[in-house]
Design goal:
The protein has 286 residues and is of the alpha+beta class. It has one domain (71-285). The protein contains seven helices and nine strands. The strands form three sheets. Strands 1-4-5-6-7 form a five-stranded antiparallel sheet. A two-stranded antiparallel ribbon has the order 2-3. The chain has a two-stranded parallel ribbon with strand order 8-9. Mean pLDDT is 89; it is low at 14-18.
Length: 286
């Protein structure tokens, strides 16, 4: 009995010593608590990031597909939902296109690139990667879109009708406005000259002025415009508001001359010979 009491006394003494040695109000105690909290929070954040990554990737993919559908005139904002996207995209073929390069062994512009993984390729990121892009802001190329670098492989979306016949071609576009780079898509009818639709999904232009590139009414006036000439050269003109009278003219945004000019230059660049022009030529020749 005495030995058992002695053991309990020793344990109690050890516990008291441990309690006394760890003072949470001391510098060491405060530091220890902070370190433990940081480790726990880091672990929670890491687990959350890994768990949410598939959801974020799916949301990003849906955003891209939704904007392709908007440009192609297939998305009804009143009735369409993200749940409809997989079914709506069944009629769309995604292809990778070789854009004009600089190297002597560069692929023929406008041909399809079969090596790119369409499930993982990110065109925006590729434009920032020196191994997947070229510098165009020099004397050899007129960088009218103001983008400085341009990817060597671009994506295109071919919309087919129920019989499998090509109906619409959608390509991504981006270029400088007044305050930001505008990212969007433009859709052409099967003749690769007439606009089916246009949309911008990311920019930092002034709300109410250049930011009106998002305005459905402004985008609607693009539909039916013939912005590429018979010889395949972009012929778009963004005029002062109210002055668009010809088939290749679009009214500019009120109070946003620089943004309007930026949109014109962006469209002319991406549909021209230095970007998707050779690809569109091949489609027209088919």
């Amino acid at each position: 009995m005495d030995s058992e009491n002695e053991l309990n006394d020793n344990l109690n003494d050890a516990a008291e010593e441990t309690h006394e040695s760890f003072n949470p109000n001391s510098f060491i105690g405060t530091l220890s608590v902070a370190v433990v909290l940081c480790l726990v929070c880091s672990l929670v954040v890491s687990v959350a990031a890994v768990a949410l990554r598939p959801i974020q990737q799916r949301n990003q993919e849906n955003k891209m597909k939704r904007n392709v559908l908007i440009a192609a005139g297939l998305w009804d904002p009143e009735t369409s939902t993200d749940q409809d996207i997989p079914e709506m995209f069944k009629s769309i073929e995604t292809v990778a296109v070789n854009l004009p390069g600089r190297a002597e062994d560069a692929p023929i512009p406008g041909t399809l690139n079969e090596e790119v993984d369409l499930n993982t390729y990110n065109q925006v990121k590729a434009a920032k990667d020196p191994h997947q892009s070229i510098f165009i802001a020099d004397e050899d190329v007129d960088d009218i879109a103001g983008i400085k670098r341009r990817e060597t492989v671009g994506l295109a979306y071919l919309v087919n009708d129920s019989s499998g016949k090509l109906e619409t071609v959608v390509v991504p576009i981006y270029g400088k406005g007044l305050w930001s780079t505008l990212y969007g898509y433009i859709a052409l009818e099967a003749d690769c000259r007439t606009v089916r639709g246009i949309t911008f999904y990311q920019h930092g232009e002034t709300p109410g002025l250049g930011g009106e590139v998002d305005n459905p009414k402004w985008k609607a006036q693009w539909v039916g415009k013939e912005i590429i000439s018979a010889d395949g050269v972009p012929d778009l003109k963004v005029t002062k508001p109210g002055n668009a009278t010809a088939d290749n003219q679009v009214d500019g945004l009120s109070g946003a001359t620089i943004t309007s000019s930026g949109v014109e230059r962006t469209v002319r660049y991406w549909l021209g010979e230095d970007a998707y022009g050779p690809f569109l030529d091949r489609i027209r020749e088919q």
